[in-house]
Protein: Restriction endonuclease subunit R
Amino acid sequence: MDALNFPPFDYKVTKSGANYLIFDILRRKNVVLTPEEWVRQHLVHYLINALGYPKSLISIERGTSYNKLQKRTDLCVYNNQGQAHLLIECKAAHVPVTQQVVKQVSIYNQTVQARYVVITNGMQHYCWEVDFEARTYKPLQDIPPFY
Structure:
């Protein structure tokens, strides 16, 4: 797997048949180690270990619907009141973060209504603060820490 632009973490990888598996601390099980999962696991550990987000507030691949279409968010982090705080879209390191990816996560956020939107391919990270009342967004330098 590619070296990513995240701090290292103590991961557990095993092999099962033709697949490599990585232990997911949120789902508490081994999951297939795809390039996108590699990015997601790095980000999960970064959120918990560096930014102080509690594991209990992080949801992986939660279903949502938009215009009667079923969609899955890569990660959604909630605040203590149960409201969506961070909506995160992960891509594999070799997948560029394009306008189409920004559009994808923006569409998801119309339903989720998270205050912050994050897009990462493990090498580049983008974060915006969304103000739904003013219908504006503000680019941020970093993902905000848990408060």
User: Anything to note?
Assistant: The chain is about 20% helix and 40% strand.
